[in-house]
Write the structure tokens for this entry.
Amino acid sequence: MAGLVSPKHGIPVRVGTLPPLTKEQLIQKLISEKTLVTPQIIKAFKNIDRKDFVLTQDKNRAYEDRPLSIGYGATISQPTTVAIMLEKLQPQSGEKILEIGTGSGYMTALLAEIAGKEGKVFSIEYVSELKGLAEFNLRKYNLGSIALFTGDGKVGLKNYSSFDRIISSASGREMPRSWKNQLTVGGRIVAPLGDELVVLDKVSKRRFKEKRYEGFIFVPLQ
Ligand code: SAH
């Protein structure tokens, strides 16, 4: 056990001795902090196990509220961030959803669980090895319709548009025009720009309403 001395009192401080959180404890923490609110999103957190999406060496850290590396410079996002993004996105059953930055496939699975059998989730990943990892992880579940693509998510998926919701896990400098064009009127984009999280509602063919939230760190959009 690592030993540290409290700088203030000179008393030895024990670190690393707390037992890891269970899945239920992590979800309860997110609920009590009011990060998770919507019943459908809470249900998805219960049904989709983060442990199935982290690397083998991190299985015992699966329910820590922090991002974990999945290789290739990518991370599976922090559970709090995933919850905040889903609560802002408010995906609904039956919707057509575009995701950019598949990574481990964890967010993809949550989206597919919420969209249900009538919905459809399209996800684009830049790194083909990560698309392979997501495919492997998602095979553990019998979710509704999911289509994974390798490529640059900035261009979206014109052939499959329009989308009711668009969500990106990677942060760019500006909102790609293609995402705005490929969004259904009445639909919503949740995407990080720099260290801000942007929520964009398409109110009419050319009019958008934007809100910004500060204080996030995301993997950069390539
Ligand atoms: N949602 C993922 C988070 C992965 S991190 C999860 O739950 O695991 C962000 C991902 O975006 C990385 O996998 C990165 O490779 C990918 N990415 C970065 N730029 C991209 C781009 N232009 N198009 C598609 N994916 C991109």
Q: What stands out?
A: The first strand starts at residue 3 and ends at 5. Residues 79-89 form the longest helix (11 residues). Residues 70, 74-77, 100-101, 103-104, 106-107, 124-127, 130, 152-154, 169-170, 219, 221-222 surround S-adenosyl-L-homocysteine (CB under 6 Å).
